[in-house]
Amino acid sequence: MASAGPTSNSFISQRLKLHYVDWGNRGAPPLLLVHGGRDHCRNWDWVADKLRDRYHIIAPDLRGHGDSAWSPDGNYAMDGFVYDLAQLIHQLDLGPVSIVAHSMGGNIALRYTGLYPENVRKLVAIEGLGPSPKIIAERAAKDGGGKSKTKKAPAKSAKAKSDDGAAEKPKKTAAKPKAAATKKAPAKTATKAKTTKKSAT
């Protein structure tokens, strides 16, 4: 037997009409499901359907996502998302609430929890922090530390090529393709220049 889906609702945050779905069971402990940057609230349907008998599930559409309003000035700064989450929890009187959040939603939920720890019972952040400190340190060591961002991009592509071999050998192997690519680059640039001259005439 198929269960009924959620009901659509909205709330106002910073003059934006933001959408959320409510899976019912208001007497149960509240659980927020917060989606990631390329998702919307209905991505959680499969999770909500399994947990709806134990929790009062709310799944918001973040601003600019799903059925929520877009920011009129095109500003989607993290503090705006955190404020929206704070408004939802406050307006629905959900605190203390359990939160399960993914990716950008996890980042938002972690920031909210840091600001209002008394309003969060439990938090699960799935991929909400970015790379671990260990991975960041390894990347920095391979990239040579304090180089500028423009210089790091080629080092990362060389790193990707070198991950297949041993620690010292890939540096020599990676250098050869770079030299070959450098020899080919002038020919491509010359072709582009010719095309540009033809277009200009």
Helix percentage range:
40-55%
Provide the structure class: alpha/beta
Order of helices and strands: EEEHEHEHEHHH
Q: Main beta sheet: strand number and arrangement?
A: 6 strands, mixed
What is the class of the largest domain in the CATH system?
A: Alpha Beta
- The tally of domains stands at 2
What's the average pLDDT?
79
What does this structure look like?
The chain folds into two domains: 7-126, Rossmann fold (3-Layer(aba) Sandwich), CATH 3.40.50.1820; 133-200, no CATH class. The model is unreliable at 147-201 (pLDDT under 50). The longest helix is centred in the C-terminal third of the chain and has 32 residues, at 169-200. The protein has a six-stranded mixed sheet, covered by helices on one side. The termini are far apart. Helix 1 (45-51) links the parallel strand 3 (30-34) and strand 4. The chain has six helices and six strands, in the order βββαβαβαβααα. With 201 residues, it is α/β, with parallel strands linked by helices.
What is the element layout, followed by pairings?
Elements: E1 7-13, E2 16-22, E3 30-34, H1 45-51, E4 56-60, H2 78-91, E5 97-102, H3 104-115, E6 120-126, H4 133-143, H5 149-162, H6 169-200
Parallel strand pairs: 3-4, 3-5, 5-6
Antiparallel strand pairs: 1-2, 2-4
List keywords for this structure.
201 residues, alpha/beta, Rossmann fold, 2 domains, six-stranded mixed sheet, 6 helices, 6 strands, globular, disordered C terminus
Outline:
This protein is an alpha/beta fold. 45% of the residues lie in helices and 18% in strands. The relative contact order is 0.10.
